Amino acid sequence: MEPLTIAQMAHRLNEQRENWLNPPTWAERVPEVVPGYPDRIIPKPGREKELKAQTLTNLYNQRPTWLDSAHKALDAAVAAAYGWEDYRSEMPDEEILGRLLALNLERSQA
User: Fold this and answer.
1) Which terminal Cβ of the chain has fewer Cβ within 10 Å, N or C?
2) Residue 63 — φ and ψ, nearest 5°?
3) Who's near 51: CB < 8 A, 6+ residues apart?
4) Can you give the pTM of this predicted structure?
């Protein structure tokens, strides 16, 4: 089985977040009349207050396991695209930023 691409992992993360933000049991999607605009989210009767509380800030403050796992999977896909076979999710930010800086400098000199 082929590993998922960055785009596929990002799509999966966005889909999971969207389902948390606007659960189908609480909200209805109404197609926007203007082409190119996203659907309108309409709360189902009696769910207005609950839906209003479903924000990205609240989601990331809660940081449920599924969200953390989705971000780790996306990070791993990005690291694989860079060819970092030794990447691990516990890698310090300083290590990652150092590698990105080195790669940027290398490419800017080419």
Assistant:
1) N
2) 45, 65
3) 22, 26, 27, 41, 43
4) 0.81
